[in-house]
Amino acid sequence: MSQPVAAVRHILIEGNKSYHNITEDLCSPTEKSPSREWIIAFSLSTVFLGLYVFAIVWTVWKGIGEWGANRSINWAWDITNFVWWIGIGHAGTLISAILLLFRQRWRTGVNRAAEAMTIFAVICAGQFPIFHMGRVWLAFFIMPFPNTRGPLWTNFNSPLLWDVFAISTYFSVSLLFWYTGLVPDLATVRDRAKGFRKKMYETFSFGWTGSAKHWQRWEALSLVLAGISTPLVLSVHTIVSFDFATSVVPGWHTTIFPPYFVAGAIFSGFAMVQTLMVITRKVLRLEQYITINHIESMNKVIVLTGTIVGVAYLTELFIAWYSGYIYEQFAFYNRVFGIYWWSYFGMMFCNVVAPQVFWARSIRRSIWWTFFLSIIINIGMWFERFVIIATTLARDFLPSSWSYYRPTWVEIAIFTGTIGLFFFCYLIFCRVAPVVAIAEVKSILKVAGDQYIGPNAKHGHGEKTHHH
Amino acid sequence: MHHDNGIWVGTEDLMRDEAFAQSSQSEFSVENIDQTDGKWTASRRDFLKLMGFGLGAATIAASCEIPVKKAIPYVTKPDEIVPGVANYFASSFVDGGDYCAILVKTREGRPIKIEGNTLSNVTMGGTSARAQASVLSLYDTRRIQNAGKVKEGQVEKMEWAAIDREVKAKLAEGGNVRIITNTLISPTAMKALGEFRTKYPNTTVVSYDPVSASALLEANEKCFGHRAFPHYKFDEASVICSFGADFLGTWGNPVKNATLYAKGRKVAGKKGAKMSRHYQVEGYMSLTGSNADNRIQIRPSEMGAAIASLYGELSGNGGGPKLNDKAAGAIKKMAKDLQAARGKSIVVSGSNNVAEQILVNRINDLLGNLNNTVDFGAQYFGRSGDERQVGKLIEEMNGGQVSMVIVWGANPSWDLPNSAAFNTAFAKVGTRVSLNTNMDETTLLCTHAAPAHHYLESWGDALPQVGQLSLIQPTIAPLFATRQAEHSLLVWADSAALKADSEQPYYEYVKENWQNNLGAGQSKYLTKDAFWEMSLHDGVYAIPVQPITAVFDTTVSVDVNAVSKPSSSEVEVSFYETVNIGGGQYAHNPWLQEMPDPVTRTVWGNYLSIPLEWDGVNNIDGWKGLVDGDEVEVEVNGQKFTCAVVRNFGQAAGTVSIALGGGRTAGGCGVGYGVNVNPCLKQDNGLTQYYAADVVVKPTGGKDKDFACVQHHHTMGVKAMGKEEGKVINADEKTLGYKGFQGSLTDRSIIFQTNIKDLQKLENKLEAFHHEAEHLNSQTLYPDNVEYFGTGLKWGMYVDLNSCIGCGACQVACVSENNVPVVGKKEVARHHEMTWLRIDRYFYGDLENPKVVYQPMMCQHCDNAPCENVCPVNATNHSMEGLNQMAYNRCIGTRYCANNCPYKVRRFNWLDYTTADLWPSNEERVFHVEGEDKPYYADNLVRMVLNPDVTVRTRGVIEKCSFCVQRIQEGKLTAKREGRAIMDNDVRTACQTACPTGAIVFGDLNNPNSEVSQANKAAGALAYKVLEEINVRPGVQYSAKIHNANEELFS
Questions:
Q1: Residue B82: CB partners within 8 Å, gap ≥ 6?
Q2: From the CA of A63, how many Å to the nearest CA of chain B?
Q3: Which helix or strand (DSSP H or E) is residue B137 part of?
Q4: What does the pLDDT look like over B578-601, one tens digit per residue?
Q5: Hey, are the CB atoms on B904 and A396 less than 8 Å from each other?
Q6: Range 842-901 of B in CB contact (< 8 A) with A
Q7: DSSP character for B596?
């Protein structure tokens, strides 16, 4: 073997696990009675979900006038939250698809949860474009289908319509991908279950037997879905950015938006994965599957994308000045020093400055730092969308129409309510499906786990003694 | 069936198949129906299918919204009413001294819109916001609906005959009777009053106006022998100087003044154009002052000194109180200008001090303006009241000398400075009869209410100007059991001339008076009937009048020392009348309440205007550090009131100002908005003074949570002395972004303005701008759509910023024409106003003494409209004729169009403003009249004002200016029916017809001879499109604002 073999990464599965241990560890959360932490978290999420439902009913019943948006700032928290959630929903697909194609094995520890997070984040995101409509009961007008109203077609020039396609496609493909991955694991749960649970998992695992043919088809389908998903990671947020980039509003009408939005989305997505993983691994005792090495890898992605986002912010400022176009210049001047200056500085600090601490290895590998910064980044990315939307609309072309926006309780309730919705879904997911992909983890046990037996094994990564 | 003629259907027919022949005999084929033993059966599946369909159909049918129809067909259809076709009736809007010759548009018998009457020599086809809004007050739910006794704020219903008996019995007792009115300009009403006085000789008519012009009238009577406003030829004047007279908004005959004023200032398209120069000397920024070329800021108490100093300059007889040096220097220079324009200048004053008005008259005389630009041959009677009569009346009432008071249209219990004294005295009068239409403050204190009709239900006439007769005719049968005021007086006077048994007694009375008295000498028409018919048709009749040569009576003492004395107090306040709610008499009209004040841009109430201070570096701060909406306690003349402040660039340091008319306490929807400042007014020799010195303003620390101002940002390049730079700099750019208050860039392609002497420079600048914009706009990847609009009709608009005075008539006309909902103060405070047409107001020039430009802003109907391509459902799209259209039914309310509109003219129905949803629960936040459960628009009476040609929009959809597409459609149909091309006259938008100055021109851009094409062409390089360089290709052109300031005035 003259071919050089890359040094193996850090160990991805710790604790000298056997295949049986893995099955036991990962299936047990679905089999045991819920822990107290879970019950508290679930109750809290349900309360916020209830608040969400209440605020949405309130909005639909009374009108969008219950929000703080106005004749100049027609979008505010609604679309801010939409873009924020959609951004969060980007990590899942990136981890599942792109990292699969790049053969990044460390993805196996986190991909299941990240994909689930993607799906729930997209569900949360989808609430906003629907319920920000003045006449939500006519929302079906945005679907192009033959109809008796003329027939009236949708406007294929509108970025909002592209959004509909982009997000529904993304949601369907992500859901398929996630579920495909779940099938063998559900079968594993089924095999251990009894009675009604067994019946239920039997249905959901589609009669998986684990035959070689099943595995072959499963591998093929996963690869095909990964292929389909990969462009989606880039396209969805690109299209979301078109909601702004194709407008004439200074501050929105910029060509930098697509890459800048995609980088930002991955950035925020990874931050959210970190937030969830740090809690999940602790609560479900999965520290040996979601290791510090996983966390460090993701922190590396965060510092990279955060820096890309930072460069984008500065590029925007430079281009605004360089364009020589006064409205553009004013828009960015206003972003930085105008009425919402605090949100711009909040964004800059949280997204660009704060993640730089991840250059230090010890911080990258610190659970507390990771958790703290993931929250900071989530806040920063929310500020970014708020800066883009509200600040821009508050000061556009005609000074006569400039206005100021502040949210009402309804908007705050809807936003916090979607966080409730998100955790409601995620907590149920933790209880019904293995949060780490059992089959995939098993597949890397011998190549990247602490039982690694390959060419580099002697170099020391496989020593059991490291971990006792 | 086989036919003998050889025609056959199918082979069976041809072959004469037996079965076919049989089946073709029976009418209904049964071939395909499942049959068993000749019996109809239905299988289980059929049953389920039918049941499913039936249930489904029933569910769908039952859940569809079925509109509630309350149409009742005519038993006998009136000839003149064709459903769907509007009728126009010539009439006159008269309210106290306000007059406007109008056409009333009625649909299916309901008046819905007011248009100007172009036949009138008094208002010349123009209208005012007040006239436009007057149609709404017809459908005021708070009108008194029947006659009766007033008890505990309610009218205890009585039959008219019964109330007549009671009033006549009281009158028969023979005590002194006083009739209180505002200005009365109706000759027939005068005749009726004459009859009343003949019957009851102890009767006196007391006439005053909520905002007085008594001093001017008295001075004119003294100096020239005419107690009236002269006709001011603002179109012929080359220098106009106004000492605080708001002649474009509220003073004299503002509609005509505005029309003529604008004529003298149109520049666009005239080679070597000249325009008048307008000086305004004032203590606050009035609508007129905001249009002036030069404002000379004085403290309100210095008005007398200012007039005296101009008189001193012109006559050489100095003296009088001392004016501040800056103003005095400016007046010296202004005097030179005036002298240079001898006979071609006008000096007017809004002062209510007789000595000052005499000085002004003398100044006009000295300048040779008398009988040239100041003409008593066409004198105007718009305001003829005298508040001193009320003072006398109060004494009489206190002395118990008055046994009956009849209040006719006036509201002395509220709108006098001494209303409290009036009310005490009023209570001592035995019988107090109100003819007012609403349960206002005065009617509440009356014993009897005999409510009059609204003017749109009335017969009547007016003589607003000498020789200019004008008729009022009803356009709808009375909505309530009310009775014409004159009719009531004539009944009480047992008039023999009133044919009380006829169907419309006062109609007969007016007609008789016109035929036999007013038109007795007419020779235009052959018969009296023709005279009447034609006058009624035209609405106006002009009697030829003899020219008058006024001579200044030299025996009148012209005393520079008799003028008001300047005060040395720290702060002074001006009280002013606004163009919308006047002295409070229009406060109950929601359209006028929601029309922003042109200068402060606030709505629903009155706010204290405070000056702004520039620290020379980064901040422009409100006086005392106050910001908009902060509450202050103001103490004036021993009276205190609390109100919110609004920072106003035109307000001079050391002065504040507040509008009259706020804080009504009874009678309609204006109750609860603003503060009543009438008690703060002082009287000097019985004449009300609209300013006060020794004002104490204390911030309370509170805030008006619903401070409602539609424009938070006001400047477009104001300049001031920079502290660091030590020279005059652009203050806007220095304050960019600071505190979010100021900070715009001044090179925005929104407003272009210049001094007329630099006209050529501006033309060159605009030429370069057009060139640059064209270059930028040609850098597009998309094919140009210009060709597409090159044929057929292409609608466009031209707005002359030099003619627009900001009066707001267009805005109210638009609201009226297009069913734009009223949203109320709270919603405006949240920037949810729905106005399709707004008038943006920008300050430019000197920060401390800025100039103003008004910019009517409506949908620009862009040919490359940014709103259209972003709508996901095609709810907004472009017509072949260049209209940007809204399909409300298609709109789902994503609001992307509104975000992407560079002009921010799109309006979203945030709430169920029009109560179209029929969901009671979502009506809480929409506009309610105080104390009413139902929202304003839920009342069927109010809904009668809706224009049936325009869809009432529901919650959740976007709406915006449609270029009055319903009028376009109507005009096109007319032209088509008459088999001709469409002409300018066929289509005129509501804003265009309302405008008194002709600032708005609308028409077909593809027709080179249309007015709009001609106007665009004439304006040449001065015409520009707002944001021309962003390639949205608007259909509206503006022409630059040109002023004629005397640049040397303060140097």
A1: none
A2: 5
A3: helix B129-138
A4: 999 999 999 999 999 999 999 999
A5: yes
A6: 842, 855, 857, 866, 869-874, 890-896, 898-900
A7: P
SS (H, E, C) B16-68: CCHHHHHHHHCCCCCCCCCEECCEECCCHHHHHHHHHHHHHHHHHHHHCCCCC
Residues shown for chain A: 468
Helix axes A292-323, A341-348, angle to 10 degrees: 130
pLDDT number for residue A466:
41
What's the complex ipTM?
A: 0.91
User: Greatest CA span in chain A, whole angstroms?
Assistant: 75
Find the residue in A nearest to B834 (Cα).
Answer: A71
- Which pLDDT value is given to residue A458? 52
What structural domains and CATH numbers belong to chain B? 148-211+386-542 (3.40.50.740), 214-380 (3.40.228.10), 572-740 (2.40.40.20), 808-990 (no CATH)
Q: Is the Cβ pair A135, B956 closer than 8 Å?
A: yes
Q: Which DSSP string corresponds to B898-945?
A: HHH-TT---EE--S-TT--S--GGGGSSS---TT-SS-GGGSHHHHTT
Q: How many other β-carbons are positioned within 10 Å of the β-carbon of residue B557? A: 9
Test the A interface: residue of B874, B885, B1033 with most A CBs within 10 Å: B874
In this complex, the residue of B744, B955, B1032 whose CB is nearest that of residue A134 is B955
Average pLDDT over residues B1023-1033: 92
What's the first-to-final CA gap in chain B, in angstroms?
A: 108
Task: State the Cα torsion B971-B977-B982-B983 to the nearest 10°.
Answer: -80
Whose structure tokens read 């003296």? B319
Statement: residue A177 has pLDDT above 60: yes
User: Judged by CB atoms within 8 Å, which residues 1009-1048 of B form the interface with A?
Assistant: 1026-1027, 1030, 1032
Question: How many residue pairs bridge chain A and chain B with CB atoms within 8 Å of each other?
Answer: 194
Most confident of B222-226, B786-790, B917-921: B222-226
Residue ranges in B399-542 assigned as alpha helix (H): 412-415, 419-426, 441-444, 485-492, 505-513, 528-538
Spatial CA neighbour of B643 closest among B668, B665, B664, B663: B663
Cα distance between the two ends of chain A: 33
b (16+ CB within 10 A) / e for A321-336? eeeebbbbbbbbbbbb
Minimal Cα–Cα distance from B627 to chain A, Å? 15
- Confidence grade of residue B921 (pLDDT, cut at 50, 70, 90): low
Residue A20 sits at the vertex; the CA angle it makes with A19 and A24, to the nearest 5 degrees, is: 120
**Chain A residues lying within 8 Å of B832, measured CB to CB:** 65, 70-71
Q: Is the dihedral of CA A225, A230, A236, A237 positive or negative?
A: positive
Express each pLDDT in B206-218 by its tens digit: 999 999 999 999 9
Strand (E) or helix (H) holding B248: none
Element holding A232 (H helix, E strand): helix A212-245
Sort strands B655-659 and B682-684 into parallel, antiparallel or unpaired: unpaired
Residue B406 three-state SS? strand
Say what the pLDDT of residue B440 is: 92
User: Residue ranges of the domains in chain A?
Assistant: 19-136+178-457
Give B708-730 pLDDT, tens digit per residue.
999 988 888 888 888 888 888 88
Q: Is B308's pLDDT higher than 90?
A: yes
Tell me how far the alpha carbon of residue B606 is from its chain's centroid.
Answer: 17
Please name the member of B747, B870, B910 whose beta carbon is closest to the beta carbon of A247.
B870
B310: Cβ–Cβ under 8 A, 6 or more apart, which residues?
B241, B331, B334, B335, B338, B347, B363
The contacts of residue B115 (CB under 8 Å, 6+ apart) are B88, B102, B103, B104, B105, B127, B993, B994
Q: Which of A69, A338, A397 sits opposite B1027 (nearest CB)?
A: A397
